[in-house]
Write a structure and sequence with these properties.
By secondary structure, the protein is of the alpha/beta class. It is built from eight helices and eight strands, in the order βαβαβαβαββαβαβαα. The radius of gyration is 16 Å and the shape is globular. Bound molecules: D-xylitol-5-phosphate (DX5) and zinc ion.
Length: 222
């Protein structure tokens, strides 16, 4: 299992300290939410900040592009130091081509689905993916509540990944906290994004430890 805290919920006046705190807390990735004010209403981080994050941490950057026509910016986000780039099925007419271009540039490729998008949208591309990201909130803002219907979708994607026989990470993003992470893990997720669930707590290390414990208690019982 991996924990990928979303830097969007960090204090941007002290990013270096926040990244250091995530390293001390043994986070696995740093989740970077890129929003363009078109695909989602909010505007957040661009390649310039990703490049600064890269210089400030040794943790892999898990870059989530919530932007229209992500093909326009893949090269920039690769150059900025992204380790994984995830694009949305809803944001491009040429998903296969975008995924190939991410991989051709030597970066891991992920695809994400909004809550209303069917798992079938990734069926024909699954063999090319390193990660599938199931959105458990409508993208755009941190601090929203987990959509309960996401559990069935996570389970369906888990099944697809197992049947594909490929090593594909199943990431879930939105509304994950210590209190519900176990349920998300039980459905089959193995990478957990958490913004307010980590940064909204006083001790990131304790929170991440508690999240791991919740998930591990599941495997212990199984
Ligand atoms: C939503 C973003 C999420 C979000 C997570 O558009 O993709 O990564 O910041 O924040 P929480 O965990 O607070 O829902
Ligand atoms: Zn995200």
């Amino acid at each position: 299992m991996k924990i990928s805290p979303s830097i969007l919920s960090a204090d941007f006046t002290k990013l270096t300290a926040e990244l250091k705190a995530l390293e001390d807390a043994k986070a696995d990735y740093v989740h970077v939410d890129v929003m363009d004010g078109r695909f989602v209403p909010n505007i957040t981080i661009g390649p310039f900040i990703v490049e600064a994050l890269k210089r400030a941490t040794s943790l892999p950057l898990d870059v989530h592009l919530m932007i229209e026509e992500p093909e326009r910016y893949i090269a920039d986000f690769v150059k900025a130091g992204s380790d994984i780039i995830t694009v949305h099925v809803e944001a491009t007419k040429h998903l296969h081509k975008v995924v190939q271009s991410i991989k051709d540039l030597g970066v891991k490729a992920g695809v994400s689905m909004n809550p209303a998008s069917s798992v079938h949208t990734i069926e024909d591309i699954i063999h090319d993916l390193d990660m599938i990201l199931v959105m458990s909130v409508n993208p755009g803002f941190s601090g929203q509540g987990f959509i309960p219907g996401s559990i069935n979708k996570i389970a369906a994607v888990r099944k697809m990944i197992d049947e594909s026989g490929k090593m594909i990470e199943l990431e879930v993003d939105g509304g994950i906290k210590v209190s519900n992470i176990k349920e998300v893990a039980r459905a089959g997720a193995d990478v957990f994004v958490s913004g307010s669930g980590v940064f909204g707590t006083p001790d990131y290390r304790k929170t991440i430890e508690a999240m791991r414990k919740e998930v591990e208690s599941l495997t212990a019982k199984a």
